[in-house]
Amino acid sequence: MKHVWPDKAQCVVVLTFDVDGISGALNRNPDARKFPSLISMREYGPNVAAPRILSLLNEYDIPASFYIPGYIAETHVSLVEDILKQGHEVAHHGYMHEPPATLDPSEEERILDHGSAILQKISGEKPQGYRSPSWELSEHSLGLLASRGFLYDSSLMGNDIPYVLEVNGKSLIELPIHWELDDAPYFAYVPSEGRRIVQASPEHVYQVWASAFEGMYHYGRSFVLTMHPWISGRPGRLRMIERLIRYIREFPNVKFMRAVDLAVHWSSRDSK
User: End-to-end CA distance of the chain, in Å?
Assistant: First the structure.
């Protein structure tokens, strides 16, 4: 596939960060606040890791997309403002990290609108992008997104380039993701939530992600990486991500983009 990307790039790279903070823990267990260690580990994301990530992105002049639950946005307004000031995208990620597949239609609709209202109040603009918490959409999700005028979703795995979903007579761009390119399966050790995986070394994850990028570059696809500040913002892991950025930059004709800009490009391309 030649020259489908802006500036005739061979491959586009989209760095994305799901700023879940404590929302994921509280959604799983409303009594999670009784576990100080768990809460502190989660709060490390927006409080410590996210500013560190912003500094790294600024150093390499890379635009990125941040998916932020409404609860985290309203309790960390200054962080959201800093993300926007640096030119990054802020997109929808539920309110309390509720997977839509666990909600009834009226709950899903209410949470979608509530999260949008919070992000709009802080940013002055309606979010254009959505990513489902836990990547678990319901059968109603795409219709709700289309009816609210969202430009894109980033929760499905049906391709490794963007594709167009026709939903109730409206078009929605899908920016596909995959578990291979998510930090949680490698690093998310959370005993209080029953998540007792053997944590991978940053070196192993670097090799997996570098190999995945090489494949995407070879085939001219889109490399969409999903990270969580509370997970990948730890110093050793963030150094690995910096190393990956430097490696990707060794390849000619690679373009780093925000998810929303890729969706706009794909939408305009599809309409021609």
Answer: 17
Other C-beta atoms closer than 10 Å to the C-beta of 90 total 24
C-alpha–C-alpha distance, residues 85 and 193, integer Å: 35
Contacts 24+ apart (CB under 8 A), 160-169: 160/216, 160/219, 160/221, 160/222, 161/1, 161/4, 161/221, 161/222, 162/222, 162/262, 162/263, 162/266, 164/266, 164/267, 164/270, 167/142, 167/143, 168/143
pTM of the full predicted structure? 0.97
Instruction: Give the HSE-up count for residue 128: Cα atoms under 13 Å, Cβ half-sphere.
Output: 15
**What own/partner pairs with CB < 8 Å and gap ≥ 24 does 188-191 have?**
188/228, 188/231, 190/38, 190/41
Question: Token pair of 171, please?
Answer: 């078009």
β-strand pairing of 163-167 with 170-174 = antiparallel
* pLDDT tens string 197-254: 889 999 999 999 999 999 999 999 999 999 999 999 999 999 999 999 999 999 999 9
Residue 194 · residue 171 · CB < 8 Å: no
Q: Which residues of 252-271 are buried (b: 16+ CB within 10 A; e: fewer)?
A: eebbbbbbbbbbbbbbeeee
Q: Catalogue all structural domains in the chain, each as residue range(s) with its CATH number.
A: 6-271 (3.20.20.370)
- Hunting for tokens 């007792």 — which residue is that? 196
Nearest C-alpha neighbor of 183 from the set 240, 227, 224: 227
